[in-house]
Design brief:
Layout (H helix, E strand, L loop, with lengths): L1 H22 L21 H8 L6 E4 L10 E5 L11 E5 L6 H8 L1 H8 L3 E5 L15 H4 L4 H17 L6 E6 L1 H12 L6 E5 L10 H9 L6 H6 L16 E7 L8 H13 L8 E6 L2 E6 L3 E6 L6 E3 L10 E3 L4 H9 L5
Helix pairs in contact: 1-2
Length: 346
């Protein structure tokens, strides 16, 4: 009985929203980032219909999103108002054992998506894949283009894009720890898919190809030439040409991280600047605050180091959070990441 009532209310709400959209006048331009701004149009009826089935701010699981070779789950959070046509799509990958919804809220990504009126995609690892809830960033079968976990997330992205008429030129992904390492793998496997990424307390692409190697690399990160790291990025397919562009990348690492050695952040910066053909030395080396250091290569790669900070996602506020892997660092990483991506964070 309650299911029938819910469906009836959803249908009536959908019809009402559709009628409202047809009567809406064109709104003035809305600031949505440092891109060519277009006048915001009412969400099309198809988007409103999908939105009516998916309550504002609610996180729902989507089961029919396409092929799922990595056996992951797709969670999707919508903003409090219907997503704008052409809004960006944000993807956030959790770390080992994290609740993706709590992580999104504590890190600030939920609030960012709401301000941008953008969907937030939260892929979720299955315990059948990894008993600790970690993404399998060290399994070649899960990181190669067209296979495993990266392919599952690729299909999730395409599904969310279709459902909510997002801008395929403005898709961004971030991840923490194991999620950060898989973020790097996704950017390497599908460079044409994302405009930018952020890796927090993660590792470079190809850092390990089995569990033993992963554990070793996390705790011990010997220096290697930049060319060696570039060579570890697998080609998208045999004989394929390099992509026309690589996504911009924001890297964050605590200097006191005892879970993933901070040298892995430096290795990822070397790898990504090498892929982009940038000089080894940054053109900016700043200390915005006593404990913070930011090195940047133009507007393509940035590497933040935080002295005295451990294995967590950095936030500015104090007082604790519901997620033990989100911690006060005196800087809101999500705001700086959004600006680096060219989005309006506030």
């Amino acid at each position: 009985m309650f299911d029938g009532l819910t469906r009836g209310l959803a249908r009536r709400l959908s019809r009402r929203l559709t009628r409202l959209a047809s009567r809406m006048l064109v709104r003035p331009p809305i600031k949505v980032g440092r891109v060519a701004r277009k006048t915001a149009q009412p969400p099309p009826p198809a988007v409103l219909t999908a939105y009516a089935r998916h309550a504002a701010g609610e996180v729902r699981e989507v089961t029919a999103f396409g092929a799922n070779p990595g056996r992951l789950r797709m969670l999707l959070q919508l903003p409090p108002t219907p997503p704008l046509p052409g809004a960006p799509l944000l993807v956030l990958l959790h770390g080992c054992g994290q609740d993706p919804v709590r992580f999104a809220a504590a890190s600030g990504f939920s609030a960012l998506a709401a301000r941008l009126r953008a969907p937030l995609l939260l892929p979720l690892q299955s315990p059948q894949n990894n008993v600790q809830g970690c993404f399998n960033w060290f399994h070649p079968a899960d990181t190669a283009r067209g296979s495993g976990e990266v392919a599952s997330i690729r299909h999730m992205v395409a599904s969310a894009l279709r459902r909510y008429a997002g801008d395929q030129r403005r898709m961004f992904i971030a991840g923490l720890s194991a999620g950060g390492a898989l973020t790097a793998a996704l950017l390497a496997a599908y460079p044409e898919l994302f405009a930018g990424g952020a890796v927090i307390a993660g590792l470079p692409v190809g850092a390990a190809n089995n569990l033993a190697g992963a554990i070793s690399r996390m705790h011990y990160a010997p220096a290697e030439p930049r060319a060696a790291w570039v060579a570890r990025v697998p080609p998208r397919r045999t004989g394929a040409r390099p992509p026309r562009r690589w996504p911009k990348l924001s890297i964050w690492h605590g200097e006191s991280d005892r879970t993933v050695h901070p040298a892995n952040g430096a290795a990822l910066a070397a790898q990504w600047t090498g892929l982009l053909g940038l000089p080894e030395a940054p053109d900016q080396d700043q200390h915005p605050a006593p404990m913070l250091r930011r090195r940047a290569w133009g507007n393509s790669v940035e590497h933040w180091s935080i002295a005295g900070f451990g294995h967590a996602f950095p936030i500015a506020r104090s007082g604790g959070t519901s997620d033990p892997y989100v911690a006060t660092a005196g800087i809101a990483a999500v705001e700086h990441i959004a600006r680096f991506w060219g989005l309006d964070a506030g």
